[in-house]
From TrEMBL:
<dbReference type="InterPro" id="IPR001173">
    <property type="entry name" value="Glyco_trans_2-like"/>
</dbReference>
<dbReference type="Pfam" id="PF00535">
    <property type="entry name" value="Glycos_transf_2"/>
</dbReference>
<keyword id="KW-0328">Glycosyltransferase</keyword>
<dbReference type="InterPro" id="IPR029044">
    <property type="entry name" value="Nucleotide-diphossugar_trans"/>
</dbReference>
<dbReference type="GO" id="GO:0016757">
    <property type="term" value="F:glycosyltransferase activity"/>
</dbReference>
<feature type="domain" description="Glycosyltransferase 2-like">
    <location>
        <begin position="9"/>
        <end position="130"/>
    </location>
</feature>
<keyword id="KW-0808">Transferase</keyword>
<protein>
    <submittedName>
        <fullName>Glycosyl transferase family protein</fullName>
    </submittedName>
</protein>
<comment type="similarity">
    <text>Belongs to the glycosyltransferase 2 family.</text>
</comment>
């Protein structure tokens, strides 16, 4: 473990999702970064639950539906050289924060973003990309086996996602943090565009991985069905205005956004996620939000204060263990995994059945990772569909694959 790790403040914002937040914090406690503080910005109920853990951390009570303002409250409480952000419905790999912040050893690096695994714990929800000042994405091909650096240019930002990102604290404070006008959606994109205006150097860190489960919220149900598109429309309009879009560019982007969101709604309707009448209703919320975003005042973003007090969180490297067995041994193995996790180990439980079923992975609230699927099934989604091997060979292969993200020691029960 490097002795010169960047002193970091980790900010997690949560609102009305206490159970999800506590699972996230269980994983945060297993991070191997040796020098970070934890800042939780949350509603009163969640703050009380976290305080009951009696951990050395900073708690900020905040109960407004505005993720940008909540993150700014976390930045104001931060004392680290770097401020990292993690969503409450995401779970980090043990090596995540150390790897995400390592590029800041190069003083010119302003920001860093990692890769995000999706709900199944295997495939990727996000890897890398660019975004222009009209909020339109563009591809960015990056090497998967190492950190790469990219110079943003005015009007074209390197996109890093709010659930897995880090910025230099002094830069964040000088820029005013996140735009409070963006209550939900494009909050990190707009900040990335301001960084681009300064020609920021941004690191893409494939090895810094989190698993994002996308829990239910005010904007979407637990099944990821949108409740309203109002904030998407409003945030888009505000971002366009912040970055000098002309009337013609605003109109063209509005049409582009309208078509894209309608296509998503129709796909959701086809699979039974919403009713036909919901398509029009949700489309109208998008239009109303965009209109509001065009009329809202755009106050200047004031610099944020800096906290002088760093509260070290007790983390650092832990021993790793793999427990492996057949799916019919699941109850006994889960009990054993929970026991080992409670004793301070990073535990991975692998359960296999005699099939070619695709694998999935999840983080159990008890503090261990569980992967399950067919003995001959696909794990990484670009691998072979059928993978002929013995039980012992497959466990060894998965152990090697997972060892890039967490400490692994094999034990078969």
């Amino acid at each position: 473990m490097p002795g010169d790790a960047i002193r970091t403040s980790l900010v997690i914002v949560s609102r009305h999702r206490t159970e999800t937040l506590l699972r996230c914090l269980t994983a945060v406690r297993q991070l191997d970064h040796p020098d970070f503080e934890l800042i939780v910005v949350a509603d009163p109920t969640a703050v009380a639950a976290v305080r009951a853990l009696n951990w050395p951390l900073k708690l900020v009570t905040f109960d407004l539906p505005n993720i940008s303002a909540a993150r700014n409250a976390g930045i104001a409480a931060a004392a680290g050289e770097v401020v990292a952000f993690l969503d409450d419905d995401a779970v980090p790999e043990p090596s995540w924060l150390r790897r995400l912040t390592a590029p800041f050893a190069e003083l010119e690096v302003s920001a860093a973003g990692g890769w995000v695994r999706s709900r199944n714990g295997i495939s990727f929800q996000w890897q890398a990309g660019m975004v222009d000042r009209l909020t339109r994405p563009a591809p960015l091909a990056v090497p998967a086996d190492r950190v790469s650096l990219y110079r943003a240019t005015p009007g074209m930002a390197v996109e890093i996602k709010g659930t897995n990102c880090a910025y230099r604290r002094d830069l964040l404070c000088r820029l005013g943090g996140f735009d409070p006008g963006l209550r939900y959606y494009l909050d990190e994109t707009e900040l990335n565009l301001r960084l681009a205006a300064e020609g920021a150097l941004v690191a893409v860190v494939p090895g810094a991985q989190v698993h994002h489960f996308k829990a239910g919220s005010r904007q979407r149900s637990a099944r990821r069905v949108p409740r309203s598109l109002h904030d998407i429309g409003a945030s888009t309009a505000i971002t366009l205005r912040r970055h000098g879009a002309s009337e013609a560019e605003i109109a063209a982007t509005r049409d582009w956004l309208r078509c894209g969101e309608r296509a998503k709604l129709i796909r959701l309707m086809v699979v039974g996620g919403i009713e036909p009448r919901d398509v029009g209703r949700l489309a109208r919320t998008l239009e109303a939000g965009f209109a509001q975003g065009l009329s809202e005042p755009l106050p200047p973003l004031s610099p944020l204060p800096r906290s002088p007090d760093f509260v070290a969180f007790p983390a650092g490297p832990r021993p790793g263990r793999v427990l492996a067995g057949r799916v019919w041994q699941a109850r006994r193995l889960r009990d054993a995994a929970a026991t080992c996790a409670a004793q301070g180990e990073i535990v991975t439980l692998i359960l296999l059945d005699p099939s070619a079923r695709y694998h999935w992975q999840r983080y159990d609230p008890s503090g261990f990772w569980e992967q399950a699927g067919g003995l001959w099934g696909r794990a990484e989604r670009n691998g072979r569909i059928v993978h002929l091997c013995t039980f012992e060979e497959r466990i060894l292969q998965e152990r090697r694959r997972l060892s890039g993200n967490r400490p692994i020691l094999l034990e078969t029960l």
